[in-house]
């Protein structure tokens, strides 16, 4: 298995207040050179729903959804060995340096999309930043026990709407 490098950088701007970290881009995301590219991944539906926006279709619309809602996106892993898109197969992971985001905007909260991202964040990134991250249920189609409605409810915290 060869080591793959993360193919694209983080998405954030000076207004970003909430950082969402995935694990490592899926095959489809690597092909599209953008986050959550697999059509069955529910990330874009969830983020649109919790922010009261239509589901974005183009990469430009996805960027706009993230940036206009004070969000930032990246992944916990900079490089790893991975079979296809399977988080369970990840080996020899090297963490992303998220200081580029933390140093350039006022991140108030950090969330991980799924257990693998959170596990790697806690192991490699938290010791560097001293900042805890909250693990949210994965939006991946592999997380079939979580319905779209359940994900939207759990992810409402990313928009500060968990008590509505």
CATH topology: Uracil-DNA Glycosylase, subunit E
Determine the strand fraction and express it as a percent band. 15-25%
Contiguous helical run count: 6
Helical content class? 25-40%
Full CATH superfamily name: Uracil-DNA glycosylase-like domain
What Rg is obtained from the alpha carbons, in whole angstroms? Answer: 15 Å
Biggest sheet overview: 4 strands, parallel
Number of strands: 7
Can you tell me the CATH architecture?
3-Layer(aba) Sandwich
Describe this structure in words.
With 164 residues, the protein is α/β, with parallel strands linked by helices. It has one domain (4-159): Uracil-DNA Glycosylase, subunit E, CATH 3.40.470. Helices cover 31% and strands 18% of the residues. Helix 5 (115-129) links the parallel strand 6 and strand 7. It is globular and about 40 Å long. The model has no long low-confidence stretch (mean pLDDT 94).
């Amino acid at each position: 298995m060869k080591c793959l490098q993360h193919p694209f950088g983080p998405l954030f701007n000076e207004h970003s207040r909430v950082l969402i970290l995935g694990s490592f881009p899926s095959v489809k995301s690597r092909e599209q050179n953008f986050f959550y590219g697999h059509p069955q991944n529910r990330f874009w539906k969830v983020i649109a729903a919790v922010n009261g926006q239509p589901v974005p279709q183009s990469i430009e619309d996805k960027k706009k959804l993230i940036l206009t809602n004070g969000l930032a996106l990246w992944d916990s892993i900079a490089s790893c060995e991975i079979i296809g898109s399977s988080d369970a197969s990840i080996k020899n992971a090297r963490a992303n340096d998220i200081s580029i985001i933390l140093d350039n905007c006022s991140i108030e909260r950090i969330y991980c999309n799924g257990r693998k991202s959170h596990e790697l964040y806690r192991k490699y990134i938290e010791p560097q930043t001293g900042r805890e991250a909250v693990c949210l249920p994965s939006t991946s189609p592999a997380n079939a026990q979580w319905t779209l409605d359940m994900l939207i409810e759990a992810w409402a915290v990313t928009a500060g709407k968990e008590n509505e």
